[in-house]
Design a protein that fits this description.
- There is one protein chain.
- The protein is an all-beta fold.
- Helices cover 0% and strands 52% of the residues.
- The chain is globular.
- The relative contact order is 0.33.
C-alpha cells in the first residue's frame, strides 16, 4: 500500500521559513518523480515543485527562487525548504506521486 506522510507545517510570519518532510512507503521511492502540491483556501490544487528520479527539479513561478525541493532516497523522504514565505503561500501542502497524495500538512503565513 502506497503511503505518503507529510509533516513540518505550522504558523509562521511573513518572511519566515519552514521545512516540510514527506516519508514514503509501499513503493520504490527512488524511481519515481515526486512533487509538492498545495491547495490554498477556496482554490484548487497547484503543483509547486517537482523532482525527478535523477534529481532534476522544476518549480512553479510563484515559488521559484524561494522554495527548494529535495529527496533522500536512502530515507524514502521528500523535502520542501520554504524561505521568504508570503501570506499567499498559506494552504495545505501535499506530497504527490503521480496523483496519489498524503493527508497534507497545513502551512499558515500570517503576522
Amino acid at each position: 500500500e502506497v503511503q505518503l506522510v507529510e509533516s513540518g507545517g505550522g504558523l509562521v510570519q511573513p518572511g519566515g521559513s519552514l521545512r516540510l518532510s514527506c516519508v514514503a512507503s509501499g513503493f520504490a521511492f527512488s524511481v519515481y518523480t515526486m512533487s509538492w502540491v498545495r491547495q490554498a483556501p477556496g482554490k484548487g490544487f497547484e503543483y509547486i515543485a517537482t523532482i525527478t528520479e535523477s534529481e532534476r527539479a522544476t518549480y512553479a513561478d510563484p515559488v521559484k527562487g524561494r522554495f527548494t525541493i529535495a529527496r533522500d532516497n536512502a530515507k524514502n523522504t521528500l523535502y520542501l525548504q520554504m524561505n521568504s514565505l508570503k501570506t499567499e503561500d498559506t494552504g495545505v501542502y501535499y506530497c504527490d506521486r503521480t496523483g496519489t497524495r498524503g493527508q497534507g500538512t497545513q502551512v499558515t503565513v500570517s503576522s
